[in-house]
Amino acid sequence: MCEPDGGPTAPGGISVHPVPGLPEFSPGDDLAAAVAGAAPWLADGDVVVVTSKVVSKVEGRLVPVAPGEDREAARQRAIDAETVRVVARRGPLKIVETPQGWVVAAAGIDASNVAGDALVLLPEDADASARALRDRLRELLGVTVAVIVSDTFGRTWRDGLTDVAVGSAGIPALVDLRGAVDAHGNRLETTQVALVDELAAAADLVKGKLGGIPVAVVRGLAYDPPAEDAGTRPLVRLGPGDLFPYGSRDLVATRAPGSDLVPRPGELDAVAAAFRVATAALPEFPVVLRYGGEGDGVVDVHLPERATTTAALNLGALVGAVVVQLHAEGWTTRWEPVGTPGGTSLVGRLWLGSTAG
């Protein structure tokens, strides 16, 4: 096959199309009607990717900034109001968990592409927003499309930003390939593809950050709409599956050396050994230890599952046994309860070292 100019034909694939001509949105605007008017060419199977900012604007998810008010101070207050827990902090930068379950910088609050008298929050329930937009487009254009609400996130241990999905409807968030066999006969054990994130990033190639195009359409992708639409919930990794829920020792501001203890070499090996001995008597009791780093003289103790009265009693017995063993070996310790047992809460901090002075 050849193109009209006689050149070779490219193989089939998917295409990404911008939707230009959309207005500046305000609270109460009909987003679906605007998209339908700007993209009457939408077809069954298309994936409509909408920037979360316009969804938030039409839904009124705005924080006003009063005349003369410091915008950054207003932003910090808004971040605190949208924070379930602070995961990490360095200077004014905060990595937090939002009410939606996302772990993201600044609670996803945006101060760009919005007038100077407002800040934009994430949609309260972007999955519900995506479902409503999908239903309304079907009503207006008679087409069945999938909808993704996207936002710009950073990634741990990688510089640069990319768009990811914070809401979706009519398309699986994850494509589970576990159990499939590759061309070499290897069985896939952990592979789950974040399909909606990949589409959000692809759509941003034509939307951009400065082009004023908040909507794009991905066409030509084969996908099966889920029987039960869970939106983006399958993407959220919290609880026991989250291996990095507490930041690192130089980011968590509450972790500081004990003023009356002087760290000494070998504290991590000593406390690990003491916990191994103590847990031998309670092999079923789940405890997770997180070390600050060699020379810190601090070990955080967490419960990976929701605490019960029995678990709390076992924890007390366990820590007591560890402290007795460490004291017998010549270590000085201090136990500091932190937080409330339950979930993946930090329940205590064990300081280890020699007494100052």
Which keywords apply here?
25% helix; five-stranded mixed β-sheet; 2 domains; NADH Oxidase; 7 helices; five-stranded antiparallel β-sheet; 60s Ribosomal Protein L30, Chain: A; alpha+beta; 357 residues
Structural description of this entry:
This protein has helices at residues 31-38, 52-58, 71-81, 126-141, 195-207, 267-279, 309-328; strands at 15-18, 47-51, 62-64, 85-90, 93-97, 103-105, 118-120, 146-155, 158-169, 174-176, 192-194, 215-219, 261-262, 288-291, 298-302, 332-337, 346-355. With 357 residues, the protein is an alpha+beta fold. It has 2 domains: 15-61 and 123-238, 2-Layer Sandwich (60s Ribosomal Protein L30, Chain: A), CATH 3.30.1330.100; 261-355, NADH Oxidase, CATH 3.40.109. The strands form 5 sheets. The protein has a 5-stranded mixed sheet with strand order 1-12-2-8-9. Strand 16 and strand 17 (346-355) form a beta hairpin. Helix 1 packs across helix 4 (126-141) and helix 6 crosses helix 7. The model is unreliable at 248-261 and 340-344 (pLDDT under 50).
